[in-house]
Amino acid sequence: MNCWLYGLSLEERWQVEAILNYLGIEIDDPDTAMRAPVFIVVGSLAGAVNSQVEVPIISLNQAFKVYTSGLYWYSPLPWRQETLQKVLKEIDASRKLPRRHALDLNLHVRHLESLLIRQALVSSRGVVSKAAASLQIQRTTLIEKMRRYKIDKSEF
Q: DSSP character for 65?
């Protein structure tokens, strides 16, 4: 199980990280994370979160505004282990339910990659080596991706 932290003061971060590490929950940096969080912990410095995917939120700030219909808990520090474990059990149970508004990241990445390849081919007038250089990838990699997305260089 992993989580992201948003808007925590230094004191809040120390307390939250200590408890989550004790419970074996990984804390990922939202800016560099390679996977979506199972839940998000929001601190007193956070403004608002507008999430398209329903990710459960545990807030340390009662005034925090949440714009999602997903699971939400207000749980000020200090956290008690038994209280937090109840919340984590609910979060774990919610993961087994289908998400109504989940995004397919792979689909969006493929779409974006295809658009960038087409744009590079247009700007290079169909010259694959120039398009590959502008995308900062190998020519053979670009050719493979063009095959995958059924992009013909003669279109450009």
A: E
Do residues 21 and 36 lie in contact, with contact meaning Cβ atoms separated by under 8 Å?
Answer: no
> How far, CA to CA in Å, does 14 sit from each of 3, 43, 64, 80, 127?
15, 12, 20, 15, 54
Nearest-CA neighbor of 36 among 79, 122, 99? 99
- Longest Cα–Cα distance of the chain, Å, equals 64
8 Å CB contact between 60 and 12: yes
Query: Which residue is listed with tokens 């390679």?
Result: 34
Strand 48-49 to 65-66 pairing: parallel
Tell me the residue type at 61: N
Distance separating alpha carbons of residues 32 and 63, to the nearest angstrom? 28
Kindly give, in sequence order, each residue whose CB lies less than 8 Å from that of residue 155, ignoring residues fewer than 6 positions away: 121, 126
Instruction: Tell me the mean pLDDT per 10 residues along the chain, length 156.
Output: 88 90 86 80 76 74 67 80 81 68 70 90 93 95 91 84
How many residues are there in the chain? 156
2-30 pLDDT tens trace:
898 988 999 999 999 988 888 888 998 87
Does the bond joining 78 to the residue before it have cis omega, within 30 degrees of 0?
yes
